[in-house]
Amino acid sequence: MSFDQRRLAELADHDAFLKRHNGPNADDTAAMLGTLGMKSMASLIEQTIPSDIRLGRELALDEPRSEAEALDYLARLARQNRVVKNHIGQGYYGTHLPAVIQRNVLENPGWYTAYTPYQPEISQGRLEGLLNFQQVIMDLTGMDLANASLLDEATAAAEAMALCKRANKKSRSSAFFVAENVFPQTLDVVKTRAEFFGFSIIVGPAEALVDHDVFGALLQYPGNSGEIGDLAPLLKKATDNHIMTCVAADLLSLVILKEPGALGADIVVGNSQRFGVPMGFGGPHAAFFATSDKLKRSIPGRIIGVSKDSRGKTALRMAMQTREQHIRREKATSNICTAQALLANIAGFYATYHGAEGLKKIAHRTHRLTTILAEGLKQSGIELAHDSWFDTLRLTAVDSGKIHGRAMTHEINLRYFDNGDVGISLDETTTAHDVTMLFEVVLGDEHTLSVAVLDDAVMAQGTSGIPEACRRESQFLTHPTFQRYHSETEMLRYLKRLENKDLSLAHAMIPLGSCTMKLNATSEMIPISWPAFSQLHPFAPRDQVAGYQQMIDELAAFLTEITGYDHISMQPNSGAQGEYAGLVAIRRYQAAQGEAHRNVCLIPSSAHGTNPASAAMVQMEVVVVECDQDGNIDLNDLRNKAEKHSESLSAIMLTYPSTHGVFESSVREACSIVHKHGGQVYIDGANMNAQVGLSRPGDFGGDVSHLNLHKTFCIPHGGGGPGMGPIGVKAHLAPFVSNHVVTPIEGVNPDSGAVSATAFGSASILPISWAYIKMMGARGLREATELAILNANYVAKRLEEYYPVLYKGDNGTVAHECIIDIRPLKATSGISEEDIAKRLMDYGFHAPTMSFPVPGTLMIEPTESESRYEIDRFCNAMIAIRQEIESVENGQWPADNNPLVNAPHTQADLVEEWNRPYSRELGAFPSEAVKLGKYWPSVNRVDNVFGDRQLICSCPSIEEYRS
Ligand SMILES: *Cc1c(COP(=O)(O)O)cnc(C)c1O
């Protein structure tokens, strides 16, 4: 740094943000190093990270920017995006996010910093929100069951195809039919998925579906260019021919269209974006997935179900959680983990706020304006491709060049088909004035059409674009929840009531191993609400999205430097989808080398369940590599298996540092063994928080990695999504990452199909990671990693006297997380890791990760953002709990009546008769910290078995909530 640069840096206080992001200050750091018996941070790192993989230099990133400067810079980028009126449609529509939901959910850390609701007692609020979402989807689709979101409509359709194949026992075919009027981006993703599942895809007119021998079919309702066909006869014929059917449907249209369940669909998928979620240049939004009852146990994704707590009171939980949490590894049929919980909640609340009447108004108004537009255009001699519509018209035989010119003048985006047709989609935000503008755009300014006159005629004649047979007759959203919160006051209180049931980072640390629940800084979050980021259509002309493109390019450049890879693909919407995208790139690359036969994927036994699930999705054969006593990959076993499968070795999937929380010293060797046998190295980047600025997977042997931007790079977890899982690849894989059929990506092979519905996945949350890196700078990022490692070692040190730390590195240190073993305690006391997890709630904490990757253990990851004060508070709680366990061990408390097995304690426990061998105070206020500010779990321990035996995934009656 030159003298001038240094002085400028001082004047700008470029350290400001890293002091906000990192928990421990210099004094804390020194004291914690002292506890570890370490002279310096440098020596802790030296003893933790193997020398042969250490970076040994600072990352080459720009000087850090202050929060104000970073926001200023982003605002300038945002100004290079152009927000215009969008009538593109094609799956993405304007919508009004009700302000009460924007401020109290989307922009509220009480909602967005929560974790996936694996601990139901402290998650009842978002579980109720997600149950509402499921009910909305079930009602509107007319199906028996819906899950609590998938990543996007296109991947939901791909999941539907896979489900059809699994569930259809009557068909031997391996072909899947896709109607030609399915959105092109959906077809793109379905094709990719089919290719690697080994299915063939037949595309044709919907009516031709029964002419083919297929196991399943995907239809769209309304179709790609807005037409509405009566699907009932077709679906019936399909069923008669043992073809399972999936209908991709538009949620708002279902308010007035006959529900696909009533038409005979087996599966219904779609996007809930237009229920209040901004387009955000492609995402995040919650896709939905609904099925008939007979498919309920094979539905992908998370399902919220109704169960009971230990008092018999209604309590919600994730149904079939064991299946979900310990994803069925190589037997898995889907790898979905992070989904779109926050956005599903928002869409559910949008429906709750509007109710059936409000939604009908929105849908009818949208349709009425579309009908006015259609009638006006027809009167003026414009030909429409279809005589049915909900909100979309396709104009045919028009002068699209002229229309395009006028549209640009008026700052209006339309959809332009390859054959010269023009598409116009209306939505909730469309006004009568917009329709007038559209007349001008299509017809020029000589036309004499009047919206008011046309509307009179439409109303008088009852003109509609919806065929008689396709009109909805059934009720929906009849549940009281959808009738009670229509005033803003009621809605505000409902949202607050639910929020208060949940524990989030706004309450306490969430020490979840492998999840990196770090600070989601407010400054990082602010830009996602800016219209110049949130209101952009993913298929907008590229000259309107220059700011986005630059921000994405800059972020990609940061991430290439951080990972040591050559290229970043910003498409995958989650870590698991990144794994899939990375494996697809490997398979394409190997095929291009004439090695398509390579299909063995080595995966250590300690791997996250998504790894083998992703491998299964590209038809790789998973060969498990054993771990040794210390939890490290058994190199001999690796060597033998690589040797044995040398001819067919495709890849290894390694997590680094390992899911055991250790920097294995032999990682370079492991990578080179695989390379020697012609395999590629996939390094799962979920644990990048232990590497940033200190080592780079691209340097020590990785060919490809995903990054969980919602772990390491500060995108909040949102209660189970959104996320982003971009992949870094070495140059040889770069041409083989995902492309996109609608908005092609430079440098990627044109025939590399997509894994997501949009080119840059959930683009609108990328400013969060951009801002984090920009504000931290190279030194800040390195220090964050060092502190993450220090905090974890400090936790391990403080707890090891009380709980054995299961795995350590060569020099007795751990990486950024540590696993404590509860099995010995369970043997002596009967107290399980689950009891400890629930008891932590009484102390005001979220549990660590339970039983992953080793059953009977807890995995603790404090992250750099937690202060020494908070970490001590957590350790003190864990130590106090250990002492409570001792009282069970020595018989002071009976095994079946003690604060651990009775945990969590609720207000209901306190007001009723107390016949327990410990005081009420010890039950509910076990620490001084809790006495100062108590977080109350809203239900007692939730019965897991009950909820799975009788699967109820719809809203229970309000009375049941009260009972
Ligand atoms: C979180 C995680 C994943 C999956 O990431 P998602 O974003 O939830 O899909 C994969 N591997 C490891 C080790 C993880 O911790």
UniProtKB/TrEMBL annotation:
CDD domains tied to this protein: GDC-P
Gene Ontology CC: cytosol; glycine cleavage complex
One GO term of the biological process aspect: glycine decarboxylation via glycine cleavage system
Keyword Oxidoreductase: yes
General function of this protein: The glycine cleavage system catalyzes the degradation of glycine. The P protein binds the alpha-amino group of glycine through its pyridoxal phosphate cofactor; CO(2) is released and the remaining methylamine moiety is then transferred to the lipoamide cofactor of the H protein.
Family label: Belongs to the GcvP family.
Protein name: Glycine dehydrogenase (decarboxylating)
Gene name as annotated: gcvP
